[in-house]
Design brief:
With 362 residues, this protein is of the alpha+beta class. The chain is 25% helix and 30% strand. The protein contains seven helices and 19 strands. A hairpin with a 2-residue loop joins strand 1 and strand 2. Helix 5 crosses helix 7. The radius of gyration is 45 Å and the shape is elongated.
Length: 362
C-alpha cells in the first residue's frame, strides 16, 4: 500500500483564437467640404458614397451644359434659317403689301417699258416664287400677314371655278385686292370692293359670252401650212395675202354682212425688243401705207398660253382699232392682231384661242 495517494491531474487543452483585426476609421476634421461619406461595409466590399454637396454641384454642371448646348443649337438654326435675316419688302405698284419672302419681281428688267409701266399703274403686279415654294405657301403667308395690316379676307375661289375668278380676295376700307396664281407665280390685282365680294363674276360672264360665239356653229380651220391654229365660225370669210415682211402671209377674217374685219400680220423677226417697240414699228407701217396719221392711245400687258402679249388701242382721228402684239415661239416672228372695231368679243376670242402651229401639215 502506498504511503500516500498520488493525485492525478487532468490536463485541459486551451484553444487560443487569433484576434480579429479591427478596421480603424480615423476621424476626419469637420473643417472643409466632405465630398465622400464614411466607408460603408457590405460584406468584404467597401463603397464610397457621394456627399449631397457634390451631387448638387454635379447637377448644376449638367444643367449648365444642357443650356449651353441648347443656345448653340438655336444659334445654328437661326444662322441656317434664311428668314432670320430677311428684311420685309413691298410689292411694286401696290400700297404697303409685303412681298412673299425671296420672291422676285417678274418685270424687273422691263420696268421702263410703257406696257409694263401701264400694267403696274393700273394696280397690277407679279412676282416669281422661289423654286421650292408653291402658291399655297404664299396664300398661307398672306393669311398671317395681311390681317396684321387690317386687311379682311372675304372670299376664296378655287382654280377651275366656272362662275368666279380663282384666287384669294381681301378688303380694306374702300380698297380690294385679289391674289392669284399664273404659271405657279404670284399675281396681284387691285379691284373694287364689289368685285371682291362677287369674285369677279361679271368678268367671267363676259368671257362666257365671248366663248358662246363658237357654240353650236360650224367651224373652219386656217390653212395647214399657216404658222397659227384657230377655229373660226363659218360666218367669217378667211382670205390670205402677202405681207410686207419677206415671203410671209397676212390672214384676214371678215364677217359676212358686216364691216367687221380682223387681220393677223407678221411684221418682223423677234430680236428681244420690248413689245411696245414692235407696236411702234407697226404704226409706222400703217402710216406709210395710208394717208391717215395713226397713233397709240393706250396699251396694257397681258398673257397667253405661249407667252406675253401687248393689247392696246390705236387711233387715226377717223378710225379707232384694237390691236395686240404677239410673238410666235415656233417661227420666232412678231405678229399684230388688228380689229377695226373696239370692244369686239370676237377679237378677244381670237386672242385667247390663237395657238402656234406645232408642225406644219403640208
Amino acid at each position: 500500500m502506498p504511503f500516500f495517494n498520488k493525485k492525478k491531474t487532468v490536463r485541459t487543452s486551451r484553444i487560443i483564437m487569433p484576434l480579429k483585426k479591427q478596421n480603424y476609421i480615423p476621424k476626419r476634421s469637420k473643417k472643409g467640404i466632405q465630398f465622400f461619406k464614411k466607408k460603408e461595409h457590405h460584406g468584404n466590399r467597401q463603397q464610397k458614397s457621394l456627399s449631397p454637396v457634390f451631387k448638387i454641384l454635379f447637377l448644376f454642371l449638367i444643367f449648365g451644359a444642357i443650356i449651353y448646348a441648347a443656345v448653340l443649337i438655336v444659334e445654328k438654326m437661326r444662322n441656317n434659317d434664311p428668314l432670320a435675316n430677311y428684311e420685309t419688302q413691298y410689292v411694286i405698284g401696290l400700297n404697303n403689301i409685303p412681298t412673299y419672302p425671296f420672291s422676285q419681281f417678274i418685270f424687273q428688267k422691263t420696268l421702263e417699258e410703257p406696257s409694263v409701266a401701264n400694267f403696274i399703274s393700273n394696280g397690277n403686279s407679279a412676282y416669281r416664287l422661289p423654286l421650292n415654294k408653291t402658291v399655297d405657301d404664299a396664300y398661307l403667308f398672306y393669311s398671317e400677314e395681311l390681317p396684321l395690316l387690317n386687311w379682311q379676307h372675304v372670299l376664296s375661289v378655287p382654280v377651275g371655278s366656272e362662275e368666279m375668278k380663282s384666287g384669294e380676295y381681301w378688303v380694306k376700307d374702300n380698297e380690294a385686292l385679289r391674289i392669284y396664281s399664273k404659271f405657279n407665280d404670284i399675281w396681284y390685282e387691285m379691284i373694287t370692293v364689289e368685285e371682291a365680294y362677287n369674285g369677279l363674276s361679271e368678268r367671267v360672264k363676259k368671257e362666257v359670252e365671248r366663248d358662246l360665239l363658237l357654240a353650236n356653229k360650224e367651224l373652219q380651220d386656217l390653212l395647214p401650212d399657216f404658222p397659227w391654229i384657230l377655229k373660226i365660225p363659218k360666218e367669217y370669210v378667211i382670205s390670205y395675202r402677202s405681207a410686207n415682211y419677206k415671203d410671209n402671209r397676212t390672214v384676214e377674217l371678215k364677217k359676212l354682212g358686216s364691216e367687221e374685219k380682223i387681220t393677223l400680220t407678221p411684221i418682223t423677226a423677234n430680236n428681244g425688243s420690248p413689245l411696245d417697240t414692235y407696236l411702234d414699228n407697226y404704226i409706222k407701217l400703217l402710216n406709210k401705207d395710208s394717208k391717215q396719221n395713226w397713233g397709240i392711245t393706250k396699251t396694257v400687258l397681258t398673257y397667253t398660253e405661249y407667252g406675253r402679249a401687248l393689247k392696246g388701242d390705236i387711233n387715226s382721228g377717223e378710225e379707232r382699232h384694237e390691236v395686240a402684239v404677239l410673238i410666235n415661239p415656233k417661227d420666232n416672228l412678231v405678229y399684230v392682231l388688228d380689229c377695226n372695231i373696239t370692244g369686239n368679243p370676237f377679237f378677244e376670242f381670237v386672242l385667247a384661242n390663237l395657238k402656234p402651229q406645232d408642225s406644219f401639215k403640208y
